[in-house]
Each structure stands twice: as structure tokens, then as C-alpha cells.
């Protein structure tokens, strides 16, 4: 590992520059063309050709070293959020993944096996990894890993660091327009329908588990105050770490949409799963332990257990990958203050500060170490596979 760590230190200026460039030029789901071009150019400078447009997705890519044997995939993300840019730190995720791949690639011939870097677009919305799965992008991969930024100096624990699954539901209400002052009684108010649905879901929240979540926005609330709105639209996200609960809550939301239409005389056009659902993340502890071992070489401490979970967590399409093959998705804080939180502009700004760059290097070293262990250690591969099988084995979304 000493050679790998040394390479990452040599690569740091380029990895940090990539993170800065992605921060300064953020691109949202499935639009990450300039981001992918920058990544491909960096890989090419170090002798690796990336296949851009892989899996039928213009902003996906893959690069591989090795030809046979066990196959570990390092997963990259690089999409940004609308309005707040890289406020989830995907510019750091890209730097970590590329650093780990470039640092370990020269060792693969000696280690044996194959190492891939799979670039997946559209994690924030769109389910890029589910599209890659459907295209067969992980079919010949035995295990996969990536690292996600977190807050402060937090490090995700070895046990209990999964994420919630999420399903998305869209509703469009169709009413009848009328003059809001002259003849409102001739109208059917689609805004009343969407507000009724919104408030009913708010009342449902007191009857769900504290770790589950339902949240949404009214996308279209009408066009003018003097017209009874004839069309409105809303989108909601339903989250739970339990698939059965996720499905039950989604059905409850759909029933509320239907009831709001009945109450207002409007027509509801309901579109469940308008984007691929994200499954709850199943961390493979056998693999996480090796990630933790290598991260602690950098002087960071990895907790064994999480603090008691009292609130719901975020979701990731890496969860879908974790139901297909043994996977890890640990998190590492970027060193921001207590008010620097994800999905806020302050978090985006923190991704190009020195503490974030230090986290990038440590995470890349640990991820490369995990991949090296997986390729070289048959006992680890067997343990990861056995754990995956005990958890139910390979499953796909069938909702």
C-alpha cells in the first residue's frame, strides 16, 4: 500500500484541480458532459482510455484494467444539484474514485483480477446507477465501492450505516377554469385539490415512524390569481429503510391523491415511480471493515456502531447496486463547521477547502486499499459473498 499512497500524494494536485473545476462548472442529472470530458482527459493523461457514453447513457463512462479474475468496481459520481451546485460533494466523490483507480491500476497485474472505474450520472435525481444496472453494467462485477462526503469530521460506522430507500410520485390535477370573481362556481379548482393533498400528507406524517419521511413540492400551483386554476402539479418523495414500509407509505400517498380529487371534483393523473426507485443501502460489513482498516492508517477513527438513529436518512442509487452485488458506500466528513450541511451552498463551498482535499486523499487511499484487498484476498471475497447471500442475495426492484 505504500506505493499506492505515494501515488495518491503525487496525484493530489490534479485531483484537487478536478474537484475545483467541477465545483465551478456544476452540471445536473444526465447533463454532465463537461464533467465527464474533464474526467476522461485526466484518465487519458495517465494512460487509461475511458469509454464515454457507456451503457447507453451519454454521460456514463467506464475504464478497466486487467482481463480476468475477481472484478472490483470503483464507482464515481459527478452530478450537481439545481441551484446550489455541488452541495452534496459529488466533485469530491469523483476525485476520490479517480484517485483510487489511478493509484491502484499499476498494481493490478501483480494483484490479479480486474479493476474498473464506473462513472454513473444522475444520482441526485434520475437513478443513473439503476440505468447502468439495467444495461448490464454491473453484470460481471463481483463487488463495488465508493465514498460519500459527510459533515464535520464524521466517519460512518462499520455497522448500521445504511440509507433509506425512496420512491417518487407525481400527481397532476385537472380541473376547470373560471373567472375567480365573476363565476368561480363554474370552476373546478385544481389548486384546492393539490393543497388538500399536501395538507393531508402533512397530517399523515404524525402516524409514520420517526425514521421514515414523506416530503414534496407543488411544482405548478396555477397561472393567475383571477383564474380558478384548471391545472396543478406536485411531486413527493417517500423514504423508508424498509422496502415493505416504503411500498405501504407510497400506496397511502396515492390514496390521498385520489381522495383529494374526489373531494374537489377534479381529475387526478398519478404517476408513481416516474424516476427509478432507490433501494435501501445494504453495506457489506466484511468489505467495510477493510475500508475502515485502511482509513485508520491516515489517523482517522472509524466508529463501530452508529449513534442511536432517531431521524430518517438520505437515499442513494448505490442502494440498488448493493442489492445486486456486495457493496460499500461509507462516508467521510469534509471538516466543515456545525452549520455546514449537505444540500446547502455552504457545503458546496466547503468542498474546495483544504480539509476537504485532505479527506479526498484519505478516502482515495482507503478505497484503493479495500479494492486491493478484495482482488488479492480470496478469504475476503468469500466472506463478502457469504454475507451478501445471508442478506438475501441478488435482488432487483419489482415495484
Task: State the domain count.
Answer: 2
Count of strand segments:
12
User: What's the CATH superfamily of the largest domain, by name?
Assistant: Zn peptidases
CATH architecture of the largest domain: 3-Layer(aba) Sandwich
Order of secondary-structure elements: HHEEEHHEHEEEHEEHEHHEEHHH
Number of helices: 12
In this structure, how is the largest beta sheet organized?
Answer: 6 strands, mixed
Query: What fold name stands as the CATH topology of the largest domain?
Result: Aminopeptidase
Runs with pLDDT <50, length 5+?
A: none
Indicate the mean pLDDT: 96
What's the alpha carbon Rg, rounded to whole Å? 23 Å
Question: What is the CATH domain class of the largest domain?
Answer: Alpha Beta
Structural class: alpha/beta
The amount of helix comes to: 25-40%
**How far is the N terminus from the C terminus?**
43 Å
Structure write-up:
This is Peptidase M20 domain-containing protein 2. This protein has 399 residues and is α/β, with parallel strands linked by helices. It has two domains: 2-163 and 281-390, Zn peptidases (Aminopeptidase); 165-272, Alpha-Beta Plaits. It is 40% helix and 16% strand. The chain has helices at residues 2-24, 33-45, 90-104, 108-111, 128-134, 190-204, 243-264, 285-296, 318-322, 345-350, 354-376, 378-390; strands spanning 51-52, 61-65, 71-76, 114-119, 143-145, 148-150, 165-174, 213-220, 231-240, 267-272, 327-328, 331-333. A six-stranded mixed beta sheet has the order 1-2-4-3-5-11. It starts with a helix and ends in a 9-residue tail after the last helix.
